[in-house]
Amino acid sequence: MGSYEVSPEQGLQSAIRIIKEGRVHSVKLEGGEAMAPTIKRITQAGIPVVGHVGLTPQRQNALGGFRVQGKSTASALKVLHDALAVQEAGAFMIVLEAVPAEVAAIITKKLHVPTIGIGAGNGCSGQVLVQIDMTGNFPPGRFLPKFVKKYADVWGEAIRGIEQYREEVKSRAYPSEEYTYPIPKEELSEFEKAVEKIPSK
């Protein structure tokens, strides 16, 4: 946030820096019709752009929080117009976030670029989920959007491992011989004899 909203020129400068220093192949920016001039400026410079419409997390305060977009005819039409404007500006793909599935499917059919849904149903061209959400790599009680399906419990498995480690360290079961470096018996014996000759402090 703040790297492209001021002007199309600011957006282009930021995109150039991200491409050069980040060594990425494209940039993604949030916003519909209002961001179309910036997207156009960036794509005219030869930098591929992924658009992002519907719920735009960077602007969530202006949207009244993390709320589904496109639940009314007027709101759905706004998402469509935003998607069309972003496509027209040159975006090669568009993320549709937190949009009713039926609306997202209709918008996907209306566009000639692919859509990537996140909380937008299975009618999009593809899907994305945040890895820490889908793998359950977060503490219990964390808010999850309705669209997040937890495919694993990385947090729970990590806690289980940490607790087992703690118990094994306390009981001295870890590190066992299997996890330590050996020394030949004769060398150890010689070392012990040498230590006995050294006065304790």
From TrEMBL:
<dbReference type="GO" id="GO:0000287">
    <property type="term" value="F:magnesium ion binding"/>
</dbReference>
<dbReference type="InterPro" id="IPR040442">
    <property type="entry name" value="Pyrv_kinase-like_dom_sf"/>
</dbReference>
<protein>
    <recommendedName>
        <fullName>3-methyl-2-oxobutanoate hydroxymethyltransferase</fullName>
        <ecNumber>2.1.2.11</ecNumber>
    </recommendedName>
</protein>
<comment type="similarity">
    <text>Belongs to the PanB family.</text>
</comment>
<dbReference type="InterPro" id="IPR003700">
    <property type="entry name" value="Pantoate_hydroxy_MeTrfase"/>
</dbReference>
<dbReference type="Pfam" id="PF02548">
    <property type="entry name" value="Pantoate_transf"/>
</dbReference>
<dbReference type="GO" id="GO:0003864">
    <property type="term" value="F:3-methyl-2-oxobutanoate hydroxymethyltransferase activity"/>
</dbReference>
<dbReference type="InterPro" id="IPR015813">
    <property type="entry name" value="Pyrv/PenolPyrv_kinase-like_dom"/>
</dbReference>
<comment type="pathway">
    <text>Cofactor biosynthesis; (R)-pantothenate biosynthesis; (R)-pantoate from 3-methyl-2-oxobutanoate: step 1/2.</text>
</comment>
<keyword id="KW-0808">Transferase</keyword>
<dbReference type="GO" id="GO:0015940">
    <property type="term" value="P:pantothenate biosynthetic process"/>
</dbReference>
<dbReference type="GO" id="GO:0005739">
    <property type="term" value="C:mitochondrion"/>
</dbReference>
